[in-house]
IS5 family transposase (Spirosoma aureum), 259 residues
Amino acid sequence: MTKQFSKLTDPQWAAISPFFKLKRKRKHDLRQMVNIILWLLRTGCEWRNLPEEWPNWQTVYYYFDQWKQDGTFERINVALNQLDRKRVMKQAHPSVLCVDSQSVKLNPMICEHRGTDATNKHVNGRKRQFVVDTQGRLWVAAVHAANQADGPVAVSLIGDILWRAGERLEKIYGDQSYNGVFAKALADWSINFEKASRPESVQGFVPVAKRWVVEPVRRRGSIAWTNYFRRIVKDYEYTLLSSVSWLYLANIQLMLQRI
């Protein structure tokens, strides 16, 4: 991950430009719009405080809103994940995924979809659900109030998981919070769920088989990389769709830097 923001290079823009309607004549350059949005993601700047030399914030937000509503960010995210897997000599679709959650604080001025995490974290805000492959690429994301349980919410993600992972998907790893309704729902689709966590009856460090498939993802995939982007170190969004879109954009930027 680079230490400072840099604009899209020509190869990077070439990789994502097919997802935008470039043939239509426009007043504003779409490549610039994407660069500004990625700059916002990295710096955490407020919409209304965009530099004066750029188009006004309403214009940039218009494109952000259009692309999040029509699924453009999701489609780009999946395509770049597949490109990066091929780059490291893997098949485009994963056969194994990992599910994890992260509780984050919510802007004090926002009351929508707010709750307190019932675990020992006691975070007053929202919870993010991440479905990543074994190398930390984000495939599916969801955001909800932090007081909602992981497993029941993750059930609603199964349709997206099946659509994006394809027919190769065989197994999903997760911790104890997913070993219930989520695991049962996966079984209906002939997908195995394997709990990768320490037995509850054991204390202290215990090397658990397959635990290290999830734990590196916990650090590298679903938590650590969020710290590189100031826009998502905390949830500032009024709508859940905006929160999810910024998560996909963060993974998009990471994938673009790899290719």
